[in-house]
Amino acid sequence: MKAAVFALVLICLGSSLSCAESRPVDSSSNDIQKFSRRYAESTIASDISKIVDSMVQKNFVNYLLNQREKKSEPTMADDSDNHIFNDLLKKQFMMWVQSKADAFK
User: Fold this and answer.
1) Which terminus, N or C, of the chain has the lesser number of Cβ atoms within 10 Å?
2) What are the UniProt keywords, alphabetically (predicted)?
3) How far apart are CA 11 and CA 20, in angstroms?
4) Exposed/middle/buried for 19, CB within 10 Å: 0-12, 13-18, 19+?
5) Helix (H, G, I), strand (E, B) or coil at 105
6) In 3-state terms, the chain is what percent helix, strand and coil (to 5)?
7) Residue 69's pLDDT is what?
8) Where are the beta strands (DSSP E) in 8-98?
């Protein structure tokens, strides 16, 4: 995408330089040519800024999506803590069941 924008800028600059080299003799047509060249350059600059803005917006959305994915993934430290906690709960439950079983004998 960046290469396409760069190529577009080079093409536009090349065409504006070729237009600048051909100067008419008449001053009124010279003014019209300057005006049309400025209008074309501003149109190109506007289009390029829109393209760059859309690229920045897409990059920002991708950044936000990546951050959300990173937050949703569980970490290894959390898994080990949960594993230890689950083991303790299982042991306590087994001890409680055994104590109840011994009470009925």
Assistant:
1) C
2) Hormone, Signal
3) 14
4) middle
5) coil
6) 90, 0, 10
7) 83
8) none
